Amino acid sequence: MDSHTGKQVNIKPPIVGNINSGLGTAIPLSQINPLKKTSFSANELISIANRFHREGDLSQAETIFRRILELIPEHPIALHFLGVIALDSDNAEAAIKLISKSTKLAPEYYQAFNNLGNALDAAGKIEEAEGIYEQALDIKADYLEAMFNLGIMKRKLRKYDEAEKLFEDYIKIDPTNASTHFELGFSCERQGNRTKAQMCYGVALNIDPKHSLARIGLAGLYQTVGRLKESIEQYDITLSDDKDLTKALNSKGIALRKSGRFEEAIECLMRSYELDRRDTETLNAIASAYQSIGDIDKATYYYTEALRVNPLSEASHKCVLFVILNNYKLSTKELFEIHREVRGPFDKPEFDNKDFLSRDKSLTRKIKVGYISSDFRTHVVAMNVLPLLANHNHDQFEIFLYGQVEFPDEITELCKGYADHWCSTMQKTDKEVADIIEKDEIDILVVLAGRFDENRPIITTYRPAPIQVSFHDCATSGLESMDYYLTDSVLHPENTVEQFTEELYRLPYYYQYPIQEGIPEISDTPALSNGYITFGSFNKPEKLGDSVIELWSNVLSSVPRSKLLLKYFNHYDEESMKQRWVSRFEKYNVNASRIIFMGSIDDRQSHLALYDFIDIALDPFPFNGATTTFESLSMGVPVVSLLGKHFVDRVAGSIVTHAGYPELAVENKSDYITCARTLATDYKKLNHMRQKMRNKVFKSNLCDGIRYAESVENAYREMWTTWAETGGYKEN
Question: Is the dihedral of CA 612, 613, 617, 621 positive or negative?
Answer without folding.
Answer: negative
